[in-house]
Amino acid sequence: MIETLAFRYVAVGILLFLTILLIIILRHIRLKRNSLKSSPPLHDKITSAKSEDPRSPNDISTYEDLYFKERYIKDRAAVYISGDTKRKILGVVRRIGSDRMTVTSYVENILRHHLETYREEINALYEARNSGKLL
Fold it and tell me: What is the pTM of this model?
């Protein structure tokens, strides 16, 4: 009888702990959502400003043509990204790209498109701080 009573107290304690943990997690999620809603990210502002650009990938085939081209890169250099970003990019390439498509090609295509799309802005920022054009 005493063992059964002790077991019930332990079970109630565990349930109480899990309930409090769930409340904390839900509050954290709600706060995160509210902070995301209150201020749009900078990349959204840039994307909407550049949406008039005819080179922007507005449909699936254009996106695929722009970013899923296989590239051979003979002069390689290391660039570090977070593990989370790498996992996401790897997932995209594995699930959407062809069997020969590589993360290196995908990232190269994204960066080339970015540099081409924002060439004027990059040069303007550079010229404001230096003389001449960067790209």
Answer: 0.54
List, as one string, the DSSP characters of the chain.
Answer: -HHHHHHHHHHHHHHHHHHHHHHHHHHHHHHHHHHHHHS--HHHHHHHHHTT-TTS--SHHHHHHHH------SS-------HHHHHHHHHHHHHHS-TT--HHHHHHHHHHHHHHHTHHHHHHHHHHHSSS---
The residue type of 113 is H
Top pLDDT among 36 and 67 is at 67
Taking the C-alpha atoms of 76, 69, 49 and 135 in order, what is their torsion angle to the nearest 10 degrees? 40
